[in-house]
Amino acid sequence: MPNALINETSPYLLQHANNPVNWYAWNTETLQKAKDENKMLLISIGYAACHWCHVMEHQSFENDEVARVMNENFICVKVDREERPDVDQVYMNAAYLINGNGGWPLNALAMPDGKPFFAGTFFPKENWIRMLEYFTGIYKNERAKLEEQAENVSKGIREIEHVPINNKELVFSKNDLDDTFSTFENKIDWERGGTKGSMKFAMPSIWEFLLQYYYFTGNSIALKAVEATLDNMANGGIYDHLGGGFSRYATDSKWHAPHFEKMLYDNGQLVSLYSHAFQVTKNPLYKKVVYETLDFVQRELTSSEGGFYSSLDADSEGEEGKYYVWTEEQIKEILKEDAPLFIDHYGITAEGNWEEGKNIPDVNYGKNQLPVTEQITQKLILLNKKLFTEREKRIRPGIDDKILTSWNALMAKGFIDAYKAFEEESFFVLAKKNIDFLLKNISTQKNSLFRNYKNGKTSIHGFLDDYAFFISALIEFYQVSFDETYLQKARDITDYVETHFFDKSSGMFLYTDDQYSDLIARKMEVTDNVIPSSNSEMAKNLFVLSLYFDNDKYEKQAIQLVKNVLEDVKKNLGYYSNWALAANFPIFGAIENAIVGKSWKEELSQFHKNYLPNVIYQGGANKSTLSLLENKSVEGKTMIYICKNKSCDLPVDTAAEAIQQIKKGAEKE
Fold first, then answer.
1. Closest CA to 109 of 86, 126, 84, 134
2. Which residues 6+ apart lie within 8 Å of 441 measured at CB?
3. One domain for residues 516 and 536
């Protein structure tokens, strides 16, 4: 008999719908059931592409003996952390408070009111049963102990990441960013790229900041760090050389052995990063990565309606990476006389460059370290296609086909940034289709958003990251389309966020909508991680919108947000990199570029060939509601105005002249 999860849409929850455990989804009815039956809550949190989540399901949640212990003593709740990051945030904080570490699967025990007294990660079957029986005994015989522990943990959860308002008068300066970079330098792995450590995560916003830091300061060391990271990732095993796209992270320090799950949010951000890096360096490797990754997204993660799916699993046929790895013999059999070129280039060995006999294609492991000629490059493309075609015959990894607003917005921005860098019209079309899909299906007339979409349904109200990244995507799309309806929508959604998420006492934004919070604490998302924090993204949005709409309130709010964390930015760029990007606005200022006239699109494309991270674009051929564009059109001409600090240079006719104005202005500073 299926359990209650059979009625859910999340692929992760549906994976557990036929477990003998009597699982429920996280909702008001489930929480009330725990109170009515006076039972502890057992909250198990994971996601569809999580390898160890699958292992624990197989060992414990599919086992009748384990299910009996769980069903008799607990109300068991399964949570997809990607759908409900607010729930994950609270109980992950509990795990850190209790054990000093966290991860997934995340398993928490709580009182009937949801206050946690214990939390941990993966448990082997026997340990899991022993732990459940231990707490069952305490709950029956010494409940007061658990209630006291739950109160203490809940208090700690409410205090974590509480950011006090900074009322000091601060002058933002370039020295702040110099201090940030000099502190961060010793954490960079100069040989392999990324940061030092036994595992490697892409962390795109760190390298986005260093790219901007290079642009504003000319510090070539920062650019060297970016290039070392992007080159090693693009050539390493973390990148799928046959099918395009990046895995979530490498389990080693050389970008070689990935945890094979592919996440939408990584690939969206990395497409943006590689596109920006191409604008700076013109490195053809970066263009190759962008095109191949977007091919992968279109082929495997795009719905017919234009939404983007969440992820591909690490496992297939119950084995991690099986879909992606090769034996030397398989390659020889498929490529015949061409096999030696592939084997040498990608570091393939008879023993296996990963596990016994198994190889991950990895240029960094290859024997051919000399420059590859155009002829060899074209040959490798053909060999890759041949192996890719053969790989397509294998049993594929599972796909998590739920559509999440924030992740879709990150991917839409990836398509927009690629369109800017490469003038590929199909990238513009796909970005527009996705944003229009989100506007139709997850946005309401009241300017609220839903987080998820699956099978024509939305069920979860949006969180701050959904709003922040979608606002950002709308702003970015306006800047390539000059269709003001997208910009107006960005402002309308921002005003909704102001009403329902803003915390006056701190000047920060809370993570949950004040109308839809059912947790023991309303948290703030402050630190940047593999995905930037929603507060740092809102700071960037407010800076840009303050310019478009001449809104001093937005600007003051953005400055307050950055002020609140500026000392943390200087000390720890690794967790405040998107905040550092936001700090660039008050330090270096933004340049407003108005392009008015029928040839706006042709002139705009000339700007996009350059990396100009602090230029904000607006214009078009039609009448505008934006104040900067008033009285700027000249009959029969396309005019370009470069403006800064509410002052504009004399208009020019071509992008080349305007770019010279921008460069001269930068030299004066």
1. 134
2. 305, 307, 450, 453, 458
3. yes
CA angle 151–152–154, rounded 5-degree value: 65
Residue 579 domain-assigned (yes or no): no
523-556 in b/e form (b: 16+ CB < 10 A) is bbbbbbeebbbbbbbbbbbbbbbbbbbeeeebbe
Domain of 357, in residue numbers:
324-393
Residue 264 DSSP one-character state: H
Is the distance from CB of 576 to CB of 527 less than 8 angstroms? yes
Nearest to 251 by CA among 265, 234, 236, 229: 236
Average pLDDT, the chain: 94
* Nearest to 61, CA basis, from 6, 134, 133, 122: 122
- What value, to the nearest 5°, has the Cα angle with vertex 572 and ends 571 and 574? 160
Residue 586 lies in a domain: no
Concatenate the DSSP letters of all residues of 266-326 into one string: HHHHHHHHHHHHHHHH--HHHHHHHHHHHHHHHHHSB-TTS-B--EE-SEETTEETTTT-B
Residue 371, C-beta contacts closer than 8 angstroms, at least 6 positions apart: none
Do 8 and 15 form a contact (C-beta atoms < 8 A)? no
Q: Angle 284-287-288 (CA atoms, 0-180°, nearest 5)?
A: 90
Beta bridge partners of 461: 450
In DSSP terms, which residues pair with 106 in a beta bridge?
45
> Is the same domain home to 342 and 281?
no
Please report the pLDDT score of residue 178 as a whole number: 92
Terminal Cα distance for the chain, rounded: 71
C-alpha span between 500 and 246 (Å, rounded): 36
Tell me the C-alpha distance between 449 and 563, whole Å.
28
Contact in structure between 73 and 22 (CB atoms under 8 Å) = no
Tokens in use for 267?
A: 């690939």
Last residue of a domain, one of 513, 537, 572: 572
The tokens for 163 are 């950011």
CA 489 to chain centre: 22
> Considering only CA atoms, which of 98, 89, 87, 84 is closest in space to residue 131?
98
Share of the chain above pLDDT 70, in %: 98
What lies within 8 Å, CB to CB, of 317 at 6+ separation is 395
Chain centroid, CA 663 distance in Å: 32
**Residue 223, amino acid:** L
Tell me the per-residue pLDDT of 552-611, one tens digit each, with 9 for 90 and over.
999 999 999 999 999 999 999 999 999 999 999 999 999 999 999 999 999 999 999 999
Q: How confident is the model at residue 665 (pLDDT cuts 50, 70, 90)?
A: low
Is 50 within a domain? yes
In a domain, 196, yes or no: yes
Report the C-alpha gap between 147 and 115 in whole angstroms: 8
Q: Kindly state the DSSP code that residue 534 receives in the 8-state scheme.
A: H
Spatial neighbors of 87 by CB under 8 A, at least 6 apart, are: 26, 43, 45, 79, 81, 519
Task: Report the alpha-carbon distance of residue 611 to residue 590 in Å, rounded.
Answer: 14
CA separation for the pair 168, 563 (Å, rounded): 8
Taking the CA atoms of the chain, what radius of gyration do you get in angstroms? Answer: 26
pLDDT band with cut points at 50, 70 and 90 for residue 369: low
Q: What is the mean pLDDT of residues 213-220?
A: 96
- The model carries a pTM of 0.94
- Residue 102: count other Cβ atoms within 10 Å of its Cβ: 18
CA angle 102, 108, 112 (to 5 degrees): 150
